[in-house]
Amino acid sequence: MMKVNIEEKKQKLYAIYDQYEKDVVEFKKASACVIGCADCCIDVGKIDITTLEGIIIRDKIVKFEEPLRSEIKERLEKNRVEIEQKKLVRCAFLKEDKSCLIYHIRPFSCRQLYSVKKCNGAAPTIHRQAIELARQTVREIQRLDSNGYSGHISYILYLLDNRNFRRSYLRGNFEPEKIALFGRSHKIMINRFSSP
Ligand code: SF4
Questions:
Q1: Ligand 1 in contact with 47 (CB < 6 A)?
Q2: H-type alpha helices, 99-127
Q3: From the CA atom positions of the chain, what is the Rg in Å?
Q4: Alpha-carbon distance 60 to 84, whole Å?
Q5: How far away, in angstroms, is 78 Cα from ligand 1 center?
Q6: What share of the chain is helix, strand, coil (3-state, %, to 5)?
Q7: CA 88 to ligand 1 center in whole angstroms
Q8: pLDDT tens, 3-33?
């Protein structure tokens, strides 16, 4: 199996993010989002990421100083428990001042969110065309991450914390049978099969 050039994939991922921003720039001009509003980091409850995005976020977490690194780990664990309990989860990366700890590397799930109306706890109101562009972008990211998976940020980071899983993924191996049980019970999607 050929080793994945992860750096090249990261650059391609950033280019996809940039292209999406260009494609939706006109729609976002109508956005009601303001700094300090983090409704979508608290009330949406489903921030899904790909393994490729997870690797970028994990690299950032391991560079955090203590006690922040341990706090994030605890918050991610709490997220996993809350999801099992079917609760809405506050993102582990949301700071007390409602800014994002990983803003510059936030995943596409966060980048696609905006609303033309103040949410006030409800779902965001997004242009239909922007939703379709976001769907296409998700498929493009999944195609790029073709030996990887998609799922809630806390689950993907949990998988990547497993050294054997991480090494195998970074080597370019495609072994969905190894995570089949966890995958089924935690709604993990196999990118190769979910991105025609
Ligand atoms: S990663 Fe950042 S932008 Fe995304 S939900 Fe978490 S706090 Fe919000």
A1: yes
A2: 108-111
A3: 17
A4: 26
A5: 16
A6: 55, 5, 40
A7: 14
A8: 569 999 999 999 999 999 999 999 999 999 9
